[in-house]
């Protein structure tokens, strides 16, 4: 039955083609998509078709722990134990001056030229202390959008990011470049519209008038500013591992986002909306949409204490800070079962079985591609 044998070989070849073609198409599409993103180069934006968030390249496309995210009942693990956020004495001091910049994407405030400061914070599960570097804002054109993080799909009019880098590093740049997922700690604060001005925001709003148009230079202003006054009273918070929310979206951030929104008046909001980039276009809706939380743990703490960090040399009578939340908590969550993540998985053997299926599928895909290449080569050689 030689002819039948040949037919079988052709059928097998056709089947392999059928099986591998989708993967080849997928790979080519992926490469093309990446090239489109790369073609955008360093230029990125929020609201224009050719440079908005869907075109951002690098880790923004390929990352697995991207930010911002949507905090939902389903993706959040509630922790009822009390945790502390500690700020050093200088963090609560009133700064006599600050620097402000309109970089075309946001309004950024820092305390010194070199994006560092003496403001330090730490807390349970941070594993080390973090130095304040800069703060900046994201805002919307409408009261129900503008924040980067959202809660059950609902956005806020604006979100403030207080950016800190780990004291293990000498600079923000070094911390961003290390690929350490705890390199940065960013505190996120939601704003909601209020009939009254937020006095803590007034110094920044006053200074925005000096940087209405994008400028490379920082402008130094002699206006008193209390960074810690920008925090909400209730520090109930979400915490998760994520990324920078702007290119190159490095996955180096332990995020802390507070549930309680702080006020912003319409006049204060308008000051942000009146800023413009170098081309005179309004800076507006400068937020990235929520990213996937698949395979990520998001924790919510509703008992958070704000404390002062002990000064150097001061005896710390407090119990030691807890660290490695994600390692210990994740272990306990995993050991309990993965039922909250995967409703189909009813016991350990099921999840073990799906691992076997996944391995078999991956092996099959690789084998198919290998055979396809082999068959193509053999046909060419003939
Ligand atoms: Zn930000």
UniProtKB/TrEMBL annotation:
This is Carbonic anhydrase. The keyword Repressor does not apply. SMART domains: Carb_anhydrase. It comes from Orchesella dallaii. Pfam families: Carb_anhydrase. It catalyses: hydrogencarbonate + H(+) = CO2 + H2O. Keywords: Lyase, Membrane, Metal-binding, Signal, Transmembrane, Transmembrane helix, Zinc. It is an enzyme of class 4 (lyase). Residues 333-352 are annotated as: Disordered. Reversible hydration of carbon dioxide. Its cofactor is Zn(2+). Residues 1-33 form the signal peptide. The chain crosses the membrane at residues 356-379. The keyword Magnesium does not apply. Residues 42-302 form the Alpha-carbonic anhydrase domain. InterPro entries: CA_dom, CA_dom_sf, Carbonic_anhydrase_a-class, Carbonic_anhydrase_a-class_CS. Belongs to the alpha-carbonic anhydrase family. Its EC number is 4.2.1.1.
């Amino acid at each position: 039955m030689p002819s039948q044998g040949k037919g079988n070989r052709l059928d097998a070849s056709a089947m392999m083609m059928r099986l591998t073609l989708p993967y080849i198409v997928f790979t080519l599409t992926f490469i093309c998509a990446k090239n489109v993103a790369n073609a955008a180069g360093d230029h990125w934006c929020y609201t224009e078709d050719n440079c908005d968030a869907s075109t951002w390249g690098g880790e923004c496309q390929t990352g697995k722990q991207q930010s911002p995210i949507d905090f939902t009942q389903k993706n959040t693990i509630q922790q009822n134990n009390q945790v502390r956020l500690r700020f050093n004495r200088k963090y609560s001091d009133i700064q006599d001056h600050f620097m402000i910049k309109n970089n075309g994407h946001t309004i950024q405030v820092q305390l010194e030229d070199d994006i560092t400061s003496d403001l330090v914070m730490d807390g349970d599960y941070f594993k080390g202390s973090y130095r304040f570097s800069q703060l900046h804002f994201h805002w919307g054109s409408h009261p129900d959008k503008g924040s980067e993080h959202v809660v059950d799909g609902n956005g806020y009019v604006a979100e403030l990011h207080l950016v800190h880098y780990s004291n293990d590093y000498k600079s923000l740049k070094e911390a961003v470049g290390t690929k350490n997922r705890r390199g940065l700690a960013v505190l996120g604060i939601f704003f909601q519209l209020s009939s009254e001005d937020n006095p803590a925001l007034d110094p920044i709003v006053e200074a925005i008038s000096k940087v209405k148009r994008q400028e490379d230079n920082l402008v130094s202003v002699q206006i008193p500013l209390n960074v810690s006054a920008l925090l909400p009273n209730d520090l109930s918070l979400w915490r998760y591992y994520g990324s920078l929310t702007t290119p190159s979206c490095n996955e180096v951030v332990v995020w802390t986002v507070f549930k309680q929104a702080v006020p912003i008046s319409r006049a204060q909001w308008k000051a942000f909306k009146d800023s413009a980039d170098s081309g005179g276009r309004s800076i507006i809706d400068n937020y990235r949409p929520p990213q996937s939380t698949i395979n990520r743990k998001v924790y919510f703490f509703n008992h958070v204490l704000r404390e002062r960090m002990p000064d150097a040399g001061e005896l710390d009578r407090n119990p030691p800070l807890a660290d490695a939340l994600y390692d210990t908590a994740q272990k306990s969550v995993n050991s309990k079962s993965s039922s909250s993540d995967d409703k189909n998985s009813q016991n350990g053997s099921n999840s073990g079985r799906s691992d076997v299926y996944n391995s078999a599928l991956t092996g099959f895909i690789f084998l198919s591609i290998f055979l396809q290449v082999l068959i193509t080569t053999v046909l060419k050689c003939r």
